[in-house]
Design a protein that fits this description.
The protein is mostly beta strands and 100 residues long. It has no helices and 7 strands.
């Protein structure tokens, strides 16, 4: 019975350096306006019976929705805000107007 054994190098033991993949520089997407709407909800984890508010933002960069806390539903924080997109971190969006 003839058999051959081949030794494979582990963790670059053969002395050849690992070539780093060529990556293009990140594209800066800049800042864009995004539509936002206010959504009221009741938190079941807390004992309070107050309604809270969330800002649901339609992201212009990744075309998903991002959710931001807005405080209590009777006095939501609707001030001018800006945030970074999670899916495309070089894009910053702001929501100047909120639809209730």
């Amino acid at each position: 019975m003839n058999s051959t054994t081949t030794v494979l190098p582990l963790f670059q033991e053969d002395g050849t350096p690992d070539e780093a993949p060529i990556q293009s520089p990140p594209v800066h997407l800049g800042m864009a306006a995004a539509a936002a709407r206010l959504v009221a909800y009741r938190d079941t984890h807390n004992e309070d019976s107050e309604q809270h508010a969330l800002l649901v933002v339609d992201c212009p960069f990744c075309h998903h929705q991002h959710i931001h806390p807005a405080g209590r539903a009777d006095k939501p924080r609707l001030c001018l805000r800006r945030s970074r997109c999670v899916g495309r971190p070089t894009g910053v969006y702001f929501f100047p107007a909120v639809h209730q």
